[in-house]
Amino acid sequence: MENTYDCIVIGAGNAGLIATLELVKKNKKVLLLESNLTPGGFATSFKRGRFEFEASLNQITDYGRKENPGKIYKLFEKLGLNEKIELETIPEAYHVYETESKENFKMPFGIDEYIEKMEEYVPGSYESIKNFFSLAIEVKDALAYIEESKGGINEEILNSEYENFMKVATHSVDKVLDALKMPKKAQEILTSYWIFLGSPTENLSFVEFATSLHTYISLGGQIPKKRSYEISILLAEEIEKNGGEIKYLSTVKEILFKDKKIAGVQLTNGEIYKANHIISSVSPTFVYGKWIPSPMLPKEALKLTNSRVLGAQGFAIYLGLNQTAEDLGLNDYTYIIHHSLNSNKEFQHRSSIKNSSSIAVVINNANPLCSPKGTCIINLISTFFGEAFEKNITEENYFELKDKIAEEIISTFENTTGIKIKPYIEEIEIATPVTFARYGGHPGGVIYGYKRTGLDNTLPRMLTMGKENYIKNLQFCGGFGVYASSYSSAYLSGDLAAKLTRRDIASEERNKEEDAWQS
Amino acid sequence: MAKLNLNGLGKKEIKKFYEIPKERDKIIRDTSASQINTNFLINKIAKNLHPKVQYVKVAKIIEENEETKTFVLTPDLETSTKQLAKFKPGQYISIEVPIGESLYKRPYTLSSSPKKVEENKYTITIRRVPYGKVSNYFLDHVEIGDAFKISAPTGELYYNPLRDANHIIGIAGGSGITPFMSMAEAIYDKTLNCKLTILYGVKSKSDIIFRERLEEITSKTDNVKLAYVMVVDDDTEFASSFIDRELLDKYLEEENSFFVSGPLSIYERMNEVLKEYNLPIKYIRHDAFMSEMEIYKEEEYNVKILTHNEEINIKCNSKETILAAMERNGILAPSRCHVGECGFCRSKLISGKVKTFNDTIRIADRQYNYIHPCASYPESDIVLKLPK
Fold first, then answer.
1. Which helix (H) or strand (E) holds B378?
2. What confidence score (pLDDT) does residue A221 get?
3. Domain at B117, CATH number
4. C-alpha dist (Å) from residue A263 to A149, A273, A475, A499, B183
């Protein structure tokens, strides 16, 4: 039937694209709806003058390489994508600076190299860092076991084989690093990576942090040669090649129900598309809050959503410089500029409108041909927390405030690293939470989904996701999904949503068969 | 792995692991089931600053000179548009204009100060051009009260304090004066904090637009200067006859950014002159509308347009862009800037060959044969798939 699908996927970001491609490859009839003109969501690029800027990607993690594949490599292999993209490798893990003390530490990829470098910076840290990474491996194994057991966890196996994991599973990063007797300075250098996860170490679960950092340091990071948009457009092309439909400039107005079951969606232009299954990368905040008629909405869905905290808001400055990275002394790929190396203090700093910290990424140092000869591209991305913006922004002061914050972030980068970049700005674009709200449509312009904190870290989300699937045949994915934000999390959450939807479809078909038998 | 010494973390933690779902559930149960807050200030500002569409009416028409009119636009209050969106001086709006069976979209730079948005007013200033279907329609047929759909303000020719010199030399050719009119107004009413020297190229005295207002502003503020350059009539007391080093040297300050707005010829001429100064290209910016292309061969090609649910066959002349042919035939394709800059009309070339100017297609898009129909001329029969 025309306009009737097995599944409708809302949002063609990383997660929605992967979910759609998986389903169409399993011969499901799928419609992917996207409110923008192009696929990818934040995984996109844009042109200014002679530069093509990367909009959001710092690095794809958990990819690895053929000989040592990560989860993303395996996922892309399953979907036949690996030979169709060109990836460049990121040279080092990160170079972290503290603005006040100007102390800085440059950390390499590779577990052994990382441990040795840390011992060089913080003599006496060797044992605790080594134990940290061993523990991280056990945590990963335990999580894999929990995922495989699909709810049927054998307590004895967990308690005997993953005893260390069981001891740390409920604790914050701070608590476990103290228990490992890691020297304070080493803790600061190690945890400076927290900013990629969006929660300070007193809130962030150790499980979450240890698995992320171990994956990053052991497998390294990659970026596509033609920006993240290269992957977005490849996924869109593959979807259409496999019979999937993508409809751009399409905004959902309402989710439709029939006999209390999901029946489709209505768009803002009045068009109706039917399906019994929906995958949404739009946040539960908006899906439950705006699209689902209240009689269809269980109280628990309201309660869960009200109990959650929104994550980081984004502020990005994209600079095309008219000198090479080498000439300017921009020798690293990832600069982390923290006001304080103590993540909890840093979080406070980033909860103020005066925040001038950033992650600065010099794209040319991984992808030398990303800009014309004699130039380079640097993206400075900051994150703001809490109500820093809400309390200070108005429509009237918006343009001025935007330039002022950008100026402070750039100046702080210059003063901290001693590298001048301002005189060389040939092109500049600034994206604020307002820009991200417009383009991504997310509540409050957040870019990291819900904040990972306490019992809303990934592990608790994973352990309860079946139970919290309040509306039958509706799955969430993307930054507001179980795995929270990041490119690899989004790809994996798209994969998960597709699997769960296939399971839902199969169980419905079984029910239909049984009904047929009985009648 | 071997048991680690996790000082202070003991067996009781294992019990806590099994309690995670229960503990999480308790937090959820204890939270209010009140309506979810979906009103976020940031999203509201985003919507107001970047509306998908603005509905306006012509409130006033001002005759600037024989060939030029300024149209004052205000919200069409019978629609959802209650307040016009803010903009930066130098930006443009794209206006949708149905003429007969055809449906055109054209970009026009806003000539008013952003401060006028407080009074809910935009102005666009349109000059007659030979064969300018939409421009001439405006001059001959548009009346007070006529309603239009326009885009949010957009465009890249505006002053950025982090990128540009604080002194802008605005080189205007003909109706290319509009962005500098807006900047001059904004400097005068202090919404823009930079200095501006306008070198205004016109054919003759009667060709000048905004003469009175510009001279009034330059007499009242030192931050805006103005010189005319007369390229056809020769009146050396009134104006220079062309832009050269001698003229520029008179106005140069320590650091200068050159903004060029007008026909392609003026941009090419400026590039020649500015070469002598050995300026990094960051100091030369131009508006999006300067692009044009000379096509010598005249042929007619078949163009097949694939939309979401139909196939439309039209003819396209080799001297018109594919978007122009679609507009002529009343096909409403997404578009905005009309010069290959904004990416709104991005479509997939299924077969055929095109010649493209101002090629700003993204690298990955090019790999999959995407083009900007607004900046592409056909060189063969063509099959084009529009975004759904």
1. strand B376-378
2. 97
3. 2.40.30.10
4. 32, 9, 14, 20, 53
Mean per-residue pLDDT for A295-299?
95
Q: Does A303 touch chain B (CB under 8 A)?
A: yes
Give the CA dihedral A365, A368, A372, A375, nearest 10 degrees: 30
Residue A18 has a CB neighbour count (10 Å cut-off) of 30
Q: What gap in Å lies between CA A282 and CA A263, rounded to an integer?
A: 18
Do A425 and B77 form a contact (C-beta atoms < 8 A)? no
pLDDT in tens, B303-317: 999 987 789 999 999
ipTM value of the model? Answer: 0.94
Tell me the helix, strand and coil percentages in chain B, rounded to 5: 30, 30, 45
Q: A134 CB near a chain B CB, below 8 Å?
A: yes
| Pairwise CA distance, residues A334 & A362, whole Å | 7
Interatomic CA distance for residues B375 and B368, integer angstroms: 17
- How confident is the model over A485-496, as a mean pLDDT? 96
Question: Which residues in chain B have Cβ-Cβ distances shorter than 8 Å to A437?
Answer: 40, 42-43, 45-46
**Measuring CA to CA, which residue among A397, A370, A430 is closest to residue A86?**
A370
**Structural domains of chain A in order of their starting residue, each with its CATH number:** 4-46+227-308+451-518 (3.50.50.60), 110-219 (no CATH), 312-445 (no CATH)
Q: Which helix (H) or strand (E) holds B156?
A: none
Structure tokens at B311: 């196939």
d(CA A343, CA B148): 52
What number of other Cβ atoms are within 10 A of residue A266's Cβ? 15
pLDDT at B241 over 90: no
Residue B109's closest CA among B122, B134, B91? B91
- Rounded Cα distance between A124 and A129, Å, is 10
Q: How many domains does chain B have?
A: 3
Distance CA B182, CA A508 (A): 62
Domain final residue pick, B290, B321, B349: B290
Task: Enumerate the residues of chain B whose CB falls inside 8 A of the CB of residue A232.
Answer: 364
Contact yes or no for B162 and A428 at CB 8 A:
yes
Does B1 contact A at CB distance below 8 Å? yes
Q: Are B382 and B304 in contact (CB under 8 A)?
A: yes
CA distance A343 to A339: 9
In whole angstroms, what is the distance from residue A226 CA to residue A68 CA?
Answer: 24
The two tokens of residue B280 are: 């990094």
Chain B partners of A155 at a C-beta cutoff of 8 Å? 18
Question: If you write DSSP's letter for every residue of A285-318 in order, what string do you get?
Answer: HHIIIIIS-GGGS-HHHHHHHHH--B-PEEEEEE
**CA dist., res. A410 & res. A392, Å (int):** 20
Alpha helical stretches, state H, A26-81: 71-78
Question: Do B233 and B315 have their domain in common?
Answer: no
Domain that holds residue B55: 47-150
Residues B178 and B212 in one domain: yes
What's A443's DSSP letter? G
Q: How would you classify the pairing of strands A334-338 and A94-98?
A: parallel
Cα angle vertex B92, ends A53, B219, to 5°? 115
pLDDT at A348: 95
- A446 DSSP 8-state letter: B
Place B126 in a pLDDT band, splitting at 50, 70 and 90: very high
Q: Average per-residue pLDDT in chain B?
A: 91
Together in a domain, B144 and B177: no
B247 occurs within a structural domain: yes
> Which of A146-150, A431-435, B215-219, B273-277 comes out lowest in average pLDDT?
A146-150
CB pairs under 8 A between A and B: 217
B360 touching A (Cβ < 8 Å): yes
Question: In A, residues 60-119, which contact B (CB 8 Å cutoff)?
Answer: none
User: What is the spatial distance between Cα B199 and Cα A8, in angstroms, rounded to a whole number?
Assistant: 56
